[in-house]
Input
Amino acid sequence: NPADKNTWFGHPRQLSRLFTTEAMERFGYYGMRALLTLYLTKHFLFSDTTTTGLYGGFTALVYLTPLIGGFIADRYLGSKRSVKFGAIMMAVGYFVLCFGGDTAKPHAVIDGQRYEVQVENFIDRPTSTGEEVRYVTTGSERLKIKGNDDGSVDLLRADNSVARNLPKGSFEPGADRNSLFVFLMLIGLSLVTVGNGFFKPNISTIVGSLYAQGDRRRDAGFTIFYMGINLGSFFSQLLCPFLADNVGWWAGFGLAAGGMLLAAALFQFDGGRLDGYGERPEGADPSRDLLIYGCAILAVPAVYFLFTNLMNATAAEPGSGIVGYVMSLPLMGQVLFLTFLISIPGILAWSFFKGSRQEFQMMLAAMVLIVFNVVFWTLFEQAGSSLTLFADRNTDLHITSNWSISAGQTQSFNAIFIVLLAPLFSILWNGLARRGLEPPIPIKFGLALVGVGLGFLFLVWGSQFAGSDFKVGIWWLAGLYFIHSVAELMISPVGLSMITKLSIARVVGLMMGVWFLSISVAQYVAGAVAQVASVETVGGQVTNLQVSLNTYLHVFTIIGEWAVGFGVVLLLLSWPLKYLMHGVK
Ligand code: GLN
Output
């Protein structure tokens, strides 16, 4: 009720505290995300394949744990206790990531012999400036390493004549790294994964609980909340890479930890604002709490085990068909895919037998949209992995001739565009709705898929203007993020409300879980896609910038075209879907 004195921008005043808490939590998460792939490739010197595989598995689990965290809050802890507990776990996780030890040392194996590689001008920072040159000393000669387009490697003398040509496969780059620090890094990520399960779904639930059933401010409230998310992300995606760049990796992760701690404090000391919201469900037994916290802490080593399993899994030859593909995946991938592939027909069968004909048809429409949702996030979530590596390697990061940003900071484009565009979209949808012109949900989804694909094709198109250094101007990357942000606003908030409108009431929580499961599967597939875009590195630097540019453009073209294709299919399907949705818009 806008006439109410106790409101905040016309919304319940509790929203302000949830807004600041979530802004700081996302500050931590996205600050860490801006650093993670660069940290893995440039500090730990992991190959692209290992980096993007681990990144995909980590983000997949980050989106999977909310299923369990939401369930635990509903049944036992209540949202508020869950948020507090999750906040502390995540803060500790970011803090642990500060301990990275010394940078790993690069080496190369040539003819079965192991040589140390000296990287000149190598800076232990997520920066793309500086021309790194790699040398190897064999015998008494110090030779420059140069990668060729065909995958072979030349060892050059001081006068740039070729001393040796190593055919593809006979040169193996590697790195020596301290296993204690790898262990700590994985424990840090595991803590964040489990903590996020307690935090993320439950703070959103509290936002929902501020509004009575049918309160028309609800959607606007979630839009404000979504802006808080991106406001927090924006600042940390600028600041954390800046600190990592100028002070050290530890400072970047430290700031993420600080932001998360502030979120915890804001929520803990709320001045009684949130009294009565997100409390323990009636009849739940408080004496169970300790057991739950204990189990959550025990889940950390379990997640750690999954991560090490993922990193050590050698890529098995994929078998034929989808079953063959799933069976060739590491344990985590198999579990994810099987859960997704079983839950869809399972829930549909249940609604066929238990629901009315109309309810079943609406559930069917929701499931179709959920499957297409996987395609969207698979492309969108390249942001933290392949697109950040692309920014580092093949993007000219100069904003003006003497001012450039760092690769990790390019992730902030998405956040700032969302902050700017979200209110415009709110106005646009409302205006269209008043004229009866608001596009139906499947059309919005279809346009989002076309958009996420076009974003990649836009970058590919712009790459023809790349300089002789094989770097594409930063505005092309910014353009991709702009198109992706428009697309995100057509699918992400729309999808959440779609679930609440199409689901049979008794299973709406479960369907929300399947929605997040589809994003989780997408994160995993996104990691696999980024793995296809792997390029060879020595000492954390690519050996051949031209090969790397071509590899990225090849993969970006394929996924861009596929997404546009899926989008068009969905636009065509919008007719039958409209029939199945029985008037839900
Ligand atoms: N950027 C939003 C967030 O972090 C949404 C991400 C998503 O749902 N995949 O909350």
